[in-house]
What we know:
By secondary structure, this protein is of the alpha/beta class. The chain has four domains: 2-36; 53-146, Glutaredoxin (3-Layer(aba) Sandwich), CATH 3.40.30.10; 152-408, Rossmann fold (3-Layer(aba) Sandwich); 429-459. It contains eleven helices and 18 strands. The protein has helices at 2-6, 8-36, 53-60, 77-90, 105-110, 135-146, 173-181, 215-226, 250-258, 395-406, 429-458, and strands at residues 66-72, 94-100, 118-123, 126-130, 152-157, 185-190, 201-207, 230-234, 261-263, 266-270, 286-287, 304-305, 312-314, 321-328, 333-337, 353-354, 358-365, 374-379. The strands form five sheets. A seven-stranded mixed sheet has the order 6-5-7-8-18-17-14, with helices on both faces. Helix 3 packs parallel to helix 6 (135-146) and helix 7 (173-181) packs across helix 10. It is extended. The two termini are 59 Å apart.
Amino acid sequence: MKELFKQRQTQFAAYATVYIAVVVAILVLVNYIANKANVSYDSTTNKRYSLSEQTEKIVKNLKGDVTISYYDKSRGFQAARDLLSRYENLSNKVKVKFVDVDKDPLTVRAAGVRTVPATVVESGLKRDEAKSVTEEEITGAFIRVLKEGVRNVCFATGLGEHSPDETGSSGLSAGKEVAEKSNYKSRAISLLETSDIPADCTVLVVGGPRRDYPEALANAIKIYVEKGGKALFLVDPPLQGLSNDIAPNPELWKVLNSWGVSSTDELVLDTSGAGRFFRMGPEIPLVTAYDPHPIVRDLKETALAMPLARPLEVKSPTGQATVEKLFSSAANAYAKNVNAIKGEVRIDQDKDKKGPFVLGVAGTFKTGKENNNGRFVVIGTSTFAMNGYINFGGNRDFFGNALNWLAADEDLISIRPKDPEDRRIQVTRSQMNLLVWFTLIILPLTVVAFGVSVWWKRR
């Protein structure tokens, strides 16, 4: 035996056996740790392969178990596995099941699934089906099964407000879609057909009225908020000489003044030049600095576009209402009286007021009843929420956050899932020809020339 162990072949075999055992042990340990702690790094610029803050906030704060069931043929599982596993990794309360529709048709029929692929989210006795395998749809299904009761967003119409059913650039259909993806039901209500705001309206949206509100209607909105209602006011400056003139709306402003919010008939013009990167003129102020309020807390690194905005003023808290600033224009913005605007807009630095100007505020009205305070948000423009601008920067997120805060759904306030970033390179015909010549002719000939040169020297 001593002679056997002294042989080189025996020693080599022993060493190899030990090495193999160590390597196998390390691999087993690494796989065990990886299985228990799934860690990944997303290096894409828009975090395409990471879940949004809103999704993380909802999933990590689950109080009960949630099951995600994916119904499809087995060959389609992998396409959904990457996304669904991210939900499962966020919380041990989330379980993901993959059901093969070919092998288990009875389970599919019992679940009421009619078309595949299908993604169903279940919590207790509540279930909801996502329309597609995307984070936005699946997170929306989470919200719908977790929230109790029905909450309605009512869009005011009848006095020139933007319509939530209008799909053109001046409509609010995209804002309506934002509301519905947060599990709110939405509908338009004609303020001319009712003396009171419907009691089932969780949030009332006054989206850019172009005609004056009568005193009775303005008072109805006042009573609605002061009894615990919630309202979002998008009030434009009274610009005249346009295709659709905007009335000054004194009765509506009388109500807002009683809560500590006032305004002047001026148009804010941004001379910082930040808008030139997006081909925007001074009449579209960009907002990049925010006050510490839950609505804008998660928008720190996102810009808002506030076209055709009027300046707002916040008075000292009086009575039962308190008001907080949300955001302001740049310091080198100017406010020009709308009556002085004739055709081309020109800034007079000696006469026009200099910024910064408050463009958005949020307030609370104390009703004296626990958990039943009125809430209101006032923005000095409605254009930012229109279909033509809502997809700029953080406009969509801000609109959704405002609705969530008004409805007391603070847990939903965050950055919403975004579509994958389009990173295609746009080239002209001459640039394309240059690219073809360089890659197919110049670069190969250069490699051949170096090869011939090396060969000639070595010859």
